[in-house]
Amino acid sequence: MKIKFALQKLSYCTVLSALIIMCLSVFSPAYSEVTRSADEVSRVSREISQEVLSPYCPGKTLAMCPSGEAGKVRREIQAMAITGMDKEEIKETLIGRFGEEFRMNDAPPEDNYKLLGAIVVGFGLSITAVTLMARRRRPGEGGLQNDGQDDDDGFDEDNRSAADDIYLEELRSEYQD
């Protein structure tokens, strides 16, 4: 009888221990999935703050807005991220509260193609202009032709007069003094 009671007591303890171990093994992974590390919470909060427009600062994201109310919203985002809410779920909660106009929309790809085309055309025109200017300044390579005259000072030494020689001598003497 004592052995039977001891076995029953042992089986209750075994069953209770097994239940506790099973509960811990079942609920601990779920708990670890719900809570996030501080780095992940910070990353998710930062990304969401950069992807939602601020209702308190027109044209700025929540991350850029210096308003105290925007700071409260950023703290709410952190609290939601700590509880394990998904990034898209947090964004949808905020958009639901503030309105659809605060959703940040990406520019259509056509705008990017137009911008890229304008950059390429501008770059091509710049290179063409620089090339033409460089050719124009180099004598003898299709630009301005040098016809043998010295264009440096506009003075031809072969055709100078005596008055020019006197004037040059005066300038040289003033320069040497």
Description of the structure:
The chain has 177 residues and is mostly helical. The protein is 67% helix and 0% strand. The protein is built from six helices and no strands. It starts with a helix and ends with a helix. Mean pLDDT is 76; it is low at 29-34.
Describe the structure using short key phrases:
mainly alpha; 177 residues; single chain
Number of strands: 0
The shape, in one word, is: elongated
Order of helices and strands: HHHHHH
Give the quaternary arrangement of the chains.
single chain
What portion of the residues fall into strands of 2 or more residues?
under 5%
User: What is Rg?
Assistant: 42 Å
Major sheet characteristics: none
Number of helices: 6
Helix share, percent: 55-70%
Provide the structure class. Answer: mainly alpha
For the residues shown, what is the average pLDDT? 76
Q: Would you summarize the structure shown here?
A:
The chain is mainly α.
What topology does this entry show?
Blueprint: H1 2-34, H2 38-51, H3 68-82, H4 87-98, H5 109-137, H6 162-176
